[in-house]
Amino acid sequence: MELEGKTALVTGAAKRVGREVALDLAKSGCNIILHHNRSDPSQTVREVREHGVECTTLKIDLTVPEEYEIMSSLDSVDILVNSASTFFRGDFNSTTIQSWNQSMAVNLTAPFLMMKHITPLMKGVDNLVVNILDGAGLRPWKNYLAHGVSKAALLHLTEVTARTLAPRIRVNGIVPGPVLKTEGMSDDVWNRVYSKTPLRRPGSPRHISSAVKFLAENDYITGEILRIDGGEYLETR
Ligand SMILES: NC(=O)c1ccc[n+]([C@@H]2O[C@H](COP(=O)([O-])OP(=O)(O)OC[C@H]3O[C@@H](n4cnc5c(N)ncnc54)[C@H](OP(=O)(O)O)[C@@H]3O)[C@@H](O)[C@H]2O)c1
Fold first, then answer.
1. Which of 6, 60, 121, 145 has the smallest number of CB atoms closer than 10 Å to its CB?
2. Band of residue 237 on the pLDDT scale cut at 50, 70, 90
3. What is the pLDDT of residue 96?
4. In sequence order, which residues have a C-beta less than 8 Å from that of residue 186 and are 6 or more positions away?
5. Is residue 111 in some structural domain?
């Protein structure tokens, strides 16, 4: 897919990984529909527009199905990146029904609903959905039970929809490794997390945004799960 002049909707794009994906796609000439919820998107919107593309914002609490109705005002979309996420820590004993439900709502139901609303707006011959996954969905990380289950199910949704929505819409997943320290995480814990990966260093949001662009540009890839994780998958947790 030629990115110049296309329209990309990125969820959770006011900051962190989603912001970098939006900025990098803008740099390649994509108009951006920037989803956010609680964060102020104005700085990211300004930076997106500095690339000479259009940027509109979409404020939705992804756990509230009625709020998705606002998307009926959208025209056409070529790329959807589901990046918004929660990241609850908790093993089988400590996971509450609240954190379980919130994980499923944001990490699994939201991408499902976004795809239901956005794929009918995908008009071209080659369109792309990218779901951002997590290593916790590939391996049984026992301290991230609800998070891992939601991301494992999102991986399944990615593969099933890659079949259902073909041939006009490709659906792929990206599994980031440690690219940005979780808010509130100490430097010590962060160092320990990335030091356990074979590459012994953290990645950056740019590693994820360049993978999104690679998936957009190579139109013979669907149902693929790309690990951009410094080899984290190879280590057990
Ligand atoms: N960071 C990493 O190192 C890493 C590692 C592995 C996988 N990942 C995956 O990569 C993706 C991006 O990571 P990240 O660290 O940038 O994510 P993040 O900071 O944890 O979350 C991104 C955004 O999700 C949005 N969000 C959360 N709950 C929402 C809700 N109810 N409604 C609407 N939006 C909601 C928030 O938007 P607002 O701020 O606007 O409310 C938030 O800014 C995620 O899917 C994550 O699982 C990240």
1. 121
2. low
3. 98
4. none
5. yes
Domain count, the chain: 1
Q: What CATH number did the domain enclosing 72 receive?
A: 3.40.50.720
For residue 207, name the pLDDT band (cuts at 50, 70, 90).
Answer: very high
Residue 222 placed within a domain:
yes
Q: Is the residue at 2 inside a domain?
A: no
Threshold 0.70, pTM exceeds:
yes
Within 6 A (CB) of ligand 1 lie: 12, 14-18, 36-39, 61-63, 83-87, 106, 132, 134, 176, 178-180
Q: Which domain holds residue 45?
A: 7-234
Q: How many A from CA of 226 to the centre of ligand 1?
A: 18
Q: Which atom of ligand 1 is nearest to the CA of 19?
A: 16
Q: What is the pLDDT of residue 143?
A: 96
Residues 209, 215: contact at Cβ < 8 Å?
no
- 234 alpha carbon – ligand 1 mean position (Å): 24
Atom of ligand 1 nearest to the CA of 17: 16
Write out pLDDT tens, residues 106-141. 999 999 999 999 999 999 999 999 999 999 999 999
Q: Which atom of ligand 1 is nearest to the CA of 179?
A: 3
Q: Using CB atoms within 10 A of its CB, is residue 93 exposed (0-12), middle (13-18) or buried (19+)?
A: exposed
Q: Nearest-CA neighbor of 87 among 70, 73, 71, 99?
A: 99
Has residue 236 got a pLDDT over 90?
A: no
Cβ burial of 73 (10 Å; 0-12, 13-18, 19+) is exposed
167 CA distance to ligand 1 centroid (A)? 29
